[in-house]
């Protein structure tokens, strides 16, 4: 199916964070435009969709197919690598809270990752309605207190996804996961803000050198 491919309109969609609204043709065009030494990307897109049903056909391309379609050996290698990258992302298993991981498993996993960190960090995990972890990010580093950790940054991050609930975790470089007054105060603020936004705070984990503490298990969360 032929389509008017306007790069200006495509860029506008990207600037408005509307990449999900791009058609297959628009998406393929912008990917090819980023390839090195590839002339006439628009014509390459037209050629592809004249011969193939949709983008999934790229999965079955062998190096000779890439070379024939794109012409440039470098672009062919880039296309092949891009498909391999997408294939690995699609196969990567999802973390599922309560099924693949629970509080104990998650806490122990974070102890393994961050228990020996000498710098204090705060991690936010975003969960959907089925408690699947959609994203995870370190939002703060350094001395964490009420002045440096603000719920605004945490929930601003959460609102970029269809987030139903969040888990917050931070480490204690001292190795002792006993919650401080600031930890409890932050937990209460996050819980209250989450209630206003409809995004529940499922747990706040404190990571020590060899163990973790769940404020949900300690009944610091309602």
TrEMBL record:
The lineage of its organism: Bacteria, Bacillati, Bacillota, Bacilli, Lactobacillales. Keywords: Hydrolase, Metal-binding, Metalloprotease, Protease, Zinc. It comes from the Bacteria. This is DNA repair protein. One of its GO terms (biological process) is proteolysis. CDD domains: MPN_DUF2466. Belongs to the UPF0758 family. InterPro entries: CoiA_C, MPN, RadC_JAB, UPF0758, UPF0758_CS. It comes from Liquorilactobacillus ghanensis DSM 18630. One of its GO terms (molecular function) is metallopeptidase activity. The keyword Hydrolase applies. Residues 94-221 form the MPN domain. PROSITE patterns: MPN (PS50249), UPF0758 (PS01302).
């Amino acid at each position: 199916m032929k389509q008017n491919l306007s790069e200006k309109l495509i860029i506008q969609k990207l600037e408005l964070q509307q990449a999900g609204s791009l058609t297959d043709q628009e998406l393929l065009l912008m990917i090819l435009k980023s390839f090195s030494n590839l002339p006439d990307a628009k014509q390459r897109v037209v050629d592809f969709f004249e011969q193939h049903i949709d983008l999934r056909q790229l999965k079955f391309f062998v190096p000779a197919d890439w070379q024939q379609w794109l012409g440039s050996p470098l672009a062919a290698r880039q296309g092949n690598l891009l498909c391999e990258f997408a294939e690995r992302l699609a196969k990567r298993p999802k973390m599922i809270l309560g099924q693949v991981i629970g509080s104990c498993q998650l806490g122990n996993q974070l102890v393994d990752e961050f228990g020996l960190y000498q710098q204090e960090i705060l991690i936010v995990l975003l969960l959907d309605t089925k408690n699947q972890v959609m994203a995870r990010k370190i939002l703060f580093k350094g001395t964490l207190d009420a002045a440096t950790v603000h719920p605004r940054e945490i929930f601003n991050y959460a609102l970029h996804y269809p987030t139903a609930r969040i888990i917050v975790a931070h480490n204690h470089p001292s190795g002792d996961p006993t919650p401080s007054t600031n930890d409890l105060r932050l937990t209460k603020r996050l819980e209250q803000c989450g209630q206003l936004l409809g995004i529940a705070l499922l747990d706040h984990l404190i990571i020590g050198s060899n163990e973790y503490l769940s404020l949900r298990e300690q009944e610091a969360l309602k």
